[in-house]
Please model this.
Amino acid sequence: MNANPWSSPKSREIRRMLVSLDERVASACELVDDNGDDPLIVTLRHAELDSLRAHVYLHGQRAGTYGIFYEYPHPVPGILESEENLPLPKVLASLAIHFDA
Model:
């Protein structure tokens, strides 16, 4: 990870998710700087492929859960584009798969 999650101007839940990323996932992705415009969303990009991204957000999610919107370099029919109301362990597993860490 290219940034210290604890110093991020994001919500406590988003920072908790960032800190919980295991070493493989954290080294496979980077935090996209958005100047802290929205404390309830964070964008992660693949360390080597800028167009492979994941947006993790709290908007519209049940308490204690997250949503993820995935971006891919090329459209892939039938592939998952988003997931809603995921507990933290599922978010971490989904990000590991997305970034293939």
